[in-house]
Amino acid sequence: MVHFSTTTLVFAALISTGFAIPTRRDVSQVDNDISNIGLAVENLNTVIASIAANGTVGAAGSSDLRSAVIGVENATTVATNDLKNTSPLSDADADTLIQVLQPVAQDVVDTLGELVNTKNVFDSAGGDPAILLGLQELQSDTSDFQAALNAVIPADLNQTVDGINGQVNNAFESALEAFGDENN
């Protein structure tokens, strides 16, 4: 009869489940993730434009807006996790991601600007606290994404990525300030 100690069984269980190595992600996956963020941001922009065109938020607009924000959050979280599971990038791979990231970042800046431009509609609906919370959540997710990206970008491209991140961060700060965040 073979006897296994409890320690041996626990160690075997930890090896088989708890210490699983995450799957490494490649540039094409992260490229796709960034494109998905772009699609989610375009959807958010469409919802904001619709609310602006209607001149009112309403229950449907509030629901659509929250769904669109959640879509951006989810896409950003997936991209962040994939970046964390990506090996440091070569200059060529980093250039590829930067080419995909630049228009997405500009869409984020434009969308946040559109949100600020429609603030009066949200004011009349009493929606500022909900908008502020959504902005804070998106800013946090974006910050996590930026940190994960900076961790894999080659040092010689940090300045380029920092410039892109700076534009997005400035747009978030302006939007947060407009919707009453005293920390910005």
Topology:
Elements: H1 6-18, H2 27-54, H3 58-84, H4 91-117, H5 119-125, H6 128-152, H7 158-178
Signal peptide: 1-20
Protein name: Hydrophobic surface binding protein
Keywords: Signal
Question: How would you describe this structure to a colleague?
Answer:
There is one protein chain. The protein has 184 residues and is mainly α. It has one domain (24-178). It is built from seven helices and no strands. Helix 2 runs parallel beside helix 4 (91-117), helix 3 packs parallel to helix 6 and helix 6 runs antiparallel to helix 7. It is elongated.
For the largest beta-sheet, the strand count, sense and barrel status come to: none
CA gyration radius, whole angstroms: 21 Å
Distance between the termini: 69 Å
The residue-averaged pLDDT reads 87
Shape: elongated
Helix-strand sequence: HHHHHHH
Helix count? 7
DSSP E strands, number: 0
The amount of beta strand, in percent, is under 5%
The chain-level structural class is: mainly alpha
Low-confidence stretches: 12-20
Signal peptide: 1-20
Organism: Piloderma croceum (strain F 1598)
Pfam family, one: HsbA
GO cellular component, one term: extracellular region
Short description:
With 184 residues, the chain is mostly helical.
Short descriptors:
80% helix; 7 helices; 184 residues; mainly alpha; single chain
